[in-house]
UniProtKB/TrEMBL annotation:
Sorted UniProt keywords: Guanine-nucleotide releasing factor, Repeat, Signal
Protein's recorded name: Alpha-tubulin suppressor
RCC1-like domain ranges (all copies): 44-352
PANTHER family: REGULATOR OF CHROMOSOME CONDENSATION
PROSITE patterns: RCC1_3
InterPro entries, per the entry: Ran_GTPase-activating (IPR051553), RCC1-like_dom (IPR058923), RCC1/BLIP-II (IPR009091), Reg_chr_condens (IPR000408)
GO MF terms, alphabetically ordered: guanyl-nucleotide exchange factor activity
Record GO cellular component, one term: cytoplasm
Pfam families (UniProt xref): RCC1_2, WD40_RLD
Lineage: Bacteria, Bacillati, Actinomycetota, Actinomycetes, Micromonosporales
Signal peptide positions on this chain: 1-35
Length: 405
């Protein structure tokens, strides 16, 4: 399809990401990073992460956008930082921030960062979005950019939300699924039209949706019966249906009924079922966790049966094991794999030696995850100040982020 074929699809999102630093008035250091595809499962030797017991407000949720980060503290406060050229930090400005800034005074339950917009659910069940809105991805009935949270409709039954590149999807407490924004490749799951939806549209009539994840031009969701469904564009097999092309409405991925987690990257997808890890789609950076080219159906990533969760919205994926260890793989040009190098990895590579990782993980051009006690750690690209370490230099190992008291 014109404008979305193979490399063009990937380049469009990456070009947007590369513009973030300029738009925010920030620059990266001039030193070039060397990227080399590394084959094999051996993890590079890295120094152990700092002690997560350092005094800091506990974090319960973290999400990484194109060049911004948002986190919910255990007390329900929402904080965002990094690039803000479209108002994606929600502080009412378009000024980039190298340190966490609180988003209003409300109490929040869930948040997800897209390429340049953010959406979150409050504890009262209302849904709010802010940032870029050229394709109606904020769901407020307009295409006007919003630098502060704007409520999506009047419903008070929203449970979970996922913000993609230019579309958004969310699940309500009644198990219904709703999507809005750009629909050029049928990523909304409601058919080939409308081209743009500025307000939420219900996806089918099913009432057993448990979660949803949005990629660049595709979407996947889990139902409460353990089945996995995907739709949208499949330039490289990212729908997992065994074919290339578009799928206008949700289609089941295989016949398994034991899926427990799924995450949509740029043009690949990974999921967990019965403790095993599976990925499919594009594999140019090794983001499938296996060697070789793209895969149109799920392929198992190593033989471990102790995977508990997976995350990743870019060309990098990260996953947790039940022993508390954290593993990442795929694109690593900014150190977002967290292994102390900038070499791409085509197999899960352990991040340090810590065994107390409990939350997240979130991975894009930068990555973040939570350790026991609520300590937040981030690494990778820092062009917008999204690592909150006082600089705009990338980091190839985790560093703790402390939210204000």
């Amino acid at each position: 399809m014109d404008g979305y074929q193979d490399g063009r699809l990937r380049a469009r999102w990456r070009r947007a990401t590369r513009l973030l630093a300029a738009a925010a008035g920030l620059t990266i250091g001039s030193a070039a990073l060397t990227a080399a595809l590394t084959v094999g499962t051996a993890a590079a030797s890295v120094a152990p992460a700092q002690d997560a017991t350092l005094a800091a407000p506990a974090v319960s949720t973290v999400t990484t956008g194109g060049a911004h980060t948002c986190a919910i503290r255990a007390d329900g406060g929402l904080w965002c930082w990094g690039a803000n050229y479209s108002g994606q930090l929600g502080d009412g400005t378009t000024t980039g921030r190298g340190a966490p800034a609180r988003v209003g005074a409300a109490s929040w339950a869930a948040v997800d960062a897209g390429a340049s917009h953010t959406c979150a659910v409050r504890t009262d069940g209302t849904l709010w979005c802010w940032g870029a809105n050229s394709r109606g991805q904020l769901g407020d009935g307009s295409t006007t950019r919003r630098p502060a949270p704007t409520q999506v409709g009047t419903a008070t039954t929203w449970a979970r939300v996922s913000a993609g590149y230019e579309h958004t999807c969310a699940v309500r407490t009644d198990g219904t699924l709703w999507c809005w924004g750009f629909n050029r490749t049928s990523q909304l799951g409601v058919g080939a039209s409308p081209y743009v939806a500025t307000t939420p549209l219900q996806v089918g009539t099913a009432t057993n949706w448990a979660s949803v994840t949005t990629g660049f031009a595709h979407t996947c969701g889990l139902r409460s019966d353990g089945t996995l469904w995907c739709w949208g564009y499949s330039s490289d097999g990212q729908l997992g249906l065994g074919t290339l092309g578009s799928q206008t409405t949700p289609a089941q991925v295989g016949t398994a009924t034991t899926w427990t987690g799924v995450t949509a990257g740029y043009v690949h997808t990974c999921g967990v079922r019965s403790g095993t890890l599976w990925c499919w789609g594009e594999n140019g950076y090794g983001q499938l966790g296996v060697s070789g080219s793209y895969q149109t159906a799920p392929v198992q990533v190593d033989a471990a049966t102790t995977w508990s969760g997976v995350g990743g919205s870019g060309d990098t994926s990260c996953a947790l094991r039940t022993d508390g260890s954290l593993w990442c793989w795929g694109k690593n040009s900014a150190g977002q794999v967290g292994d102390g190098t900038t070499s791409h990895r085509n197999a899960p590579t352990r991040v340090g030696t810590a065994t107390d990782w409990t939350g997240g993980p979130a991975a894009a051009e930068h990555s973040c995850a939570i350790r026991a006690g609520g300590g937040l750690w981030c690494w990778g690209d820092n062009s917008g100040g999204q690592l909150s370490d006082g600089s705009t230099a990338p980091r190839s190992t985790p560093a703790q982020v402390t939210l204000p008291v």
